[in-house]
Amino acid sequence: MSEKRRKAYARGVLAESLIALLLRFKGHRIVARRYRTPVGEIDLIATRGRRLAFIEVKRRSTYEAAAWSVPTRQRRRIVRAAQYWLAGHPGFQGYEMSFDVVLSAPWSFPTLIENAFEV
Amino acid sequence: MFARVTTVAFEGIEARSVDVQVQIGPGMPAFSIVGLPDKAVAESRDRVRGALNAIGLALPPKRVTINLAPADLPKEGSHYDLPIALGLMAAVGAVAPDAIEGYVVLGELSLDGSIARVDGTLPAAIGANTLDKGLICPKPCGAEAAWAAADMPILAPANLLALVNHFKGLQSLSRPEPEPEPEPEAMPDLKDVKGQESAKRALEVAAAGGHNLLMIGPPGSGKSMLAQRLPSILPPLEPSEMLEISMIRSLAGNLSGGRIGRARPFRSPHHSASMAAMVGGGTRARPGEAALAHHGVLFLDELPEFQPQVLDALRQPLETGETVIARANHRISYPSRIQLVAAMNPCRCGRAGEPGYSCRQGQGCADRYQARISGPLLDRIDIQIEVPAVSAADLSLPPASEGSAEVRRRVVAARQIQAARLEELGEKRARTNSECDGSLLEAIAEPDPSGLTLLREAAETLGLSARGYHRSLRLARTLADLDGESRISRLHIAEALSYRGETLRGASGQGARLNQTVAA
Fold first, then answer.
1. Helical spans, DSSP H, in B235-303
2. In A, what residues contact B, Cβ < 8 A?
């Protein structure tokens, strides 16, 4: 892994931790973090009441770049990973589900986009 | 959360009721439409989402499933947007589900929430009326729908918000008013045609009996001019006929203003017309020229220039009065009772048969040109006449004393005789002599003894086929009706025999023989 990629990765992990903390303050319960499956990966899984959110954190150097950075292929990976996770946690089956995206950039407050995409 | 809305799918001019079932349930957020939607229907989810956003409603992040029942009937067209949107709004509680229960809904949505016009509103309104329901349709189609029934409730909102407010009671939508009947358009008059007296007579006979007509003549002899004047001497449309024509036009998307006049349709497709253009077809199995000319005139100029398959496809509508389009997913029939009027040149240069002109190509050219029309099609054309070139002397004549109005009076009188006679015999389908066949023809067209003798002799000397024999009888019946006589006399038979088109198919020798027979 090149030095540049390693730094970007570390910044991403840091952003995720920060956002997990923020979500806790907003009343979310973090169910899983950095959940890896053979079909894809989910950054954060959080619940709030009867609502279950699969959250993708995007950190880029500018806001605009972050907003454009969830391509269709990655959405499909997230959806598949979510199905994989649900199969292992049948207790969440009846929850209202959503796929959210958090955009994060240096020196600005992260933005949560609820229902960013559908299956 | 479940809701259902009624809409329609079109099969020909019939509207079949379709149930739009909307279910919003838990699960991964998704929006799916099932029930054999075509591309335009499947895309409606983005239009519906945009329109709902525009009026301040968001789709819930839930599993939304839309089922269009019956599930085995293919759904085509853009008119499913509004029923889907209303079903969603009922399912999330934005409108009361029982408010939309009594309506058949159709309309296309724009992203800003306005409702755009759709084709086929009139058949849908008639379908809704048979289901004892009201109709919700786009505003531009309101006048069209209002014509279907005087007492059914019709809502024609301009946008989704107006409809929601109507159901909430904040704003009331009034029933759209049907357009008044348009003023009769000025049609070309038969007076404009100078000379051509025999062709005018043939045109009158064709109009009186609803017979198909073929005119053969050199370029510039006035064939097209005559054909264009045929609607002006045909009787005006009956209300039931107007409704049928309007339904076909509504489906084809050219019922502008929602009301048609009482003039009979006159369609003149170009000779490059394809099979789909002529009898209907395409992905949505749209009505073709034959259906659009229902109860009117289909004029084919330059008949031999049409593709032979296209012409032969017209045999079915000419025979049965309807066109059936069979496709992988459809079997649709459109009513097409047409009167075929065709015009052609005798040969490629158009001068064959002109006195004193001998073509370098010889007779073969004319024969080849005329052979492009199949015999079975020609067999279905009762009147085949020659239209000679107009002479300069004819052009300088004063205008004819008789115009379309006088001729039409005679035609209407003859048609009334036919209708009364056929009604007396308990015939439901046929309304004119041209539609009579077999035993019905024998019952109505019995010539007097001298006429019968002439017909028999002619049949023997000319070698008339069974169909040719009946054709002459049918024509003679119309000629007698024009004279207001109940019996067919020798004179009528003789005139009928003269419309047989002996120039075609190298039967020129028969003409001379016919003259001998009549003289004898």
1. 239-252, 275-279, 289-292
2. 79, 82-83, 93-99, 114-115, 118-119
pLDDT in tens, B84-133: 999 999 999 999 989 899 999 999 999 999 999 998 898 999 999 999 99
The residues, any chain, with a CB within 8 Å of residue B231's CB and separated by 6 or more, are B187, B263, B264, B265, B266, B296, B297
ipTM, 2 decimals? 0.78
Of B303, B277, B493, B482, give the one whose Cα is nearest residue B380: B303
Per CATH, is B436-520 categorized as 2.40.160?
Answer: no
Report pLDDT for B258.
Answer: 64
In chain B, CATH 1.10.8 sits at: 436-520
**Residue B257: per-residue pLDDT:** 66
B27 CB within 8 Å of a chain A CB? yes
Q: Work out how many CB contacts closer than 8 A connect A with B.
A: 28
Contact A119 B62 (CB under 8 A): no
Of the candidates A93, A94, A115, the beta carbon closest to that of B29 is on: A115
pLDDT band for position B501 (cuts 50, 70, 90): low
Q: Which domains does chain A have, with CATH numbers?
A: 3-117 (3.40.1350.10)
Could you give the residue range(s) of every CATH 3.40.50.300 domain in chain B? 190-432
**CATH number for region B190-432:** 3.40.50.300
pTM for the model: 0.80
**DSSP 8-state assignment for residue B372:** T
Cβ–Cβ gap A115/B61 under 8 Å? yes
For residue A79, the chain B residues in CB contact (below 8 A) are: 28
CA distance A25 to chain B (A): 23
The band of A61, judged by pLDDT with boundaries at 50, 70 and 90, is: confident
Cα–Cα distance, B255 to B268 (Å, whole number):
18
The CATH fold of domain B2-168 = Ribosomal Protein S5; domain 2 (3.30.230)
pLDDT for B2-52, tens place per residue? 999 999 998 888 899 999 999 998 888 889 999 989 888 889 989 999 999
Q: Boundaries of CATH 3.30.230.10 in chain B?
A: 2-168
Nearest chain B residue to A82 by CA distance is B28
- Report chain B's terminal Cα–Cα distance, integer Å: 88
From the CA of B37, how many Å to the nearest CA of chain A? 19
In chain B, residues with a C-beta closer than 8 Å to the C-beta of A101 are: none
For chain B, helix, strand, coil in percent to 5 are: 45, 15, 40
Q: Are residues A79 and B26, on separate chains, in Cβ contact within 8 Å? A: no
Q: Is B123 helix (H, G, I), strand (E, B) or coil?
A: helix
